[in-house]
Amino acid sequence: MALQLNNLRLPAWLLPATWPRTAGQPETARLDIDDGIVTRVQPASGPGEGLDCLGALALPGLVEPHAHLDKTYTRRRLGAITPGLLGAIEATQADRAFWTPEDLRQRASRALGQARSHGVTHLRTHLDWWSAETPTAWQVIRELAQDTFFHLEQVALLPLPLLADKTVVQRIAHTLANDTQAPRSVLGAFIHSSNFNAQALHNLLACAAEAGLDLDLHIDEELNTAACGLATVARAATAMQFPGRIVCSHACALSTYPEAQAQATLDDVARAPITLVALPATNLYLQDAVHGRTPRLRGLTLLKEARLRGIALLLGSDNVQDAFCPIGNYDPLSTLQLAVLSAQLDDVFDTWSQTVCRADWLSRAEHGADLPGKAAHLTLLHSTDPYSWPADTARSVLHGEHVPEAFSTYLRGLA
């Protein structure tokens, strides 16, 4: 069964530079879908051909680049928490006693269901790995990954001091690289000024390269101008010609640097194989958090400055309803909506929407942003206005060739 979607408005970043424009705006497109694959994207054809989408906005499947499925949905059982990152870590450590396979499976399954309902097709989760032994959550999520609809990746989130012993890093890296049941494994670490260890960081980079693993790092999640994790990783990765991809999440400290230092650090990042992930919800909630005091600082990394340098940049939900953030629902469009306000973004649909779509920026294999030849996973937005979107995040999710009834109903309301 074939499907033609005519008069869809796609974002500029998803279209070739030669795509026709009117008044500076990309013209609408026609998508041909056959056997669940997008076979062709071309400028919209005349009336009567395929389903007329009447200029509705559309995106590819959404990406959730940074989640914590082992911690999620635990806030209700944690009680009072000391404000800030370290208080959240302390509360989570106490909660680990309840992380049985059944508990983890129930909470993670709920999270995956939420993500799928919002149109997520690629999700990467960090899983606490606090000793040399494989944690229970790793096996539970690995089992869920076998049955889930979308591309699910697992990151071993290690405390940096554990990696001071190179044999420990080598053993864990070997475990991940040879885990045939979890082939989408990534090596990670929490890098903070409170635990910084240059030798451990060197071991992490060297062992990841040796094992053929990508890296995904929690880095400089603080407002300390002395934090140097991002700059150190960027320079080391360039010097050693790191062969994979390094995802660096948070980088809050970058917003506190003197201007010249911040710009120089971003120049280093631009030269390295690094993707930055900003996490507006958790950073707004945790950074500059003091009991009884309104925060003065946002804690957001430098999104606009990174984009100007061509640095790959994504937005993530991070923690959802746990010690680190009491709200959230695994909706990338809600994350983007929050970023629009907190980072004062404009041209959101045509430019910044790629921060919730570019799953290729998570890996060394950059497949590009084109649709033809890829599975027909589309986020059909209930909006025709690229200027005010995402004021309303309503959408229908298309997988294959079946047009959701909710989208058909929306189109009838436009006619």
TrEMBL record:
Pfam families: Amidohydro_3 (PF07969). Residues 98-338 form the Amidohydrolase domain. Keywords: Hydrolase. One of its GO terms (molecular function) is cytosine deaminase activity. The keyword Hydrolase applies. GO terms for biological process: cytosine catabolic process. The keyword Hydrolase applies. This is Amidohydrolase family protein. It comes from Pseudomonas helleri. The lineage of its organism: Bacteria, Pseudomonadati, Pseudomonadota, Gammaproteobacteria, Pseudomonadales.
